[in-house]
Amino acid sequence: MFRWWRERKAAQQASRRRPGFLARLRLRLRRIVVITLLVVILGPPLLVVGYHTLPPPVTLLMLVRLTEGHGLHKQWIPLREVPPHVADSVIALEDNLFCQHNGFDWEAISDAMADNARPGARLRGASTISQQTAKNVFLWPSRNMARKAAEVPFTWMIENFWGKWRIMEVYLNVVEWGPGVYGIEAAAQHHFHKSARNLTRHEAALLAAALPRPLRWNPGHPSPRLENRADRAMLRAVQLGEMVDCVHPDTGRGKAQRTATRKTPRARPAVVTEPVVELRAGPLPDDGAAQPGMGDAVLERPWDGADFDTAGEGPDTGTPVTVPPASPSRTNGEVAPVESPPEDSGG
Known about the structure:
The chain is mainly α. It has a domain at 60-260: Penicillin binding protein transpeptidase fold (Orthogonal Bundle), CATH 1.10.3810. Helices cover 45% and strands 2% of the residues. A hairpin with a 2-residue loop joins strand 2 (176-178) and strand 3 (181-182). Helix 2 crosses helix 7 and helix 4 (84-94) runs parallel beside helix 10.
């Protein structure tokens, strides 16, 4: 009987022995793989759901800039408290069809790929505001195919779960606007020493114009090139009209404010331009140069600029040019391209 008890005791102790090193390693690796898969599969949807109502606390770009010594200055502001012309100017320069597309403009992407494939061509982007928001909030700041591929599911999720209003609200609060400056409120305080609630149409256009190169262009002390882009932003914003009403909580209020904020022009060239805009997604070229179909038009009739607080100049030349004021008319979703005026080589 004692022998049976000792054998049973030995069997129980043997069953409680720790597994060998290899067995423990396999178990640990299995746990790591399972946790990684859960994070990869469930993490993005959970972040999208959380940021539907909560402000993103920090982005990877902010952390990268911190390591570069740029600091971190940001302050969240609800989109309802931002003047309508801020979003209008951003849409006018960064993504004309923001309210119409579903996150991607495949025609613009195809055109950009074709242009970039040409020998010696300057790289041209075709990212919509939705894609830029997905990149800024969820992804790392780099230009490679892996990051571009990762944009697709995030863009699809925020388009379908957040909607245009929330996308614009998050975009304006996380986008980079200077060294260590993120979001429209921090940008307004840094560049103009005021709240974003008090930005004028011209100041909003200058901020939108600086988006492609926020570390090089200073809206508080704009260069002629930046002023030119700002002028084009104001002109385009009015031309787009109701096509930007998806970012205004009350369409009637948005229209009224856009009309009420038009001011008399400053002392600039007497004859200015109102470009005929080709409606398409993707940002305006950051150099402000003339691009076929991107807003420059044939010279026809002068316009005195009485509807705006600023006047426009020709592309990068400082030469006044004139075109007929006209709202863009669409045919099958497009506007017929127009010829660009020749640059003044002697300017």
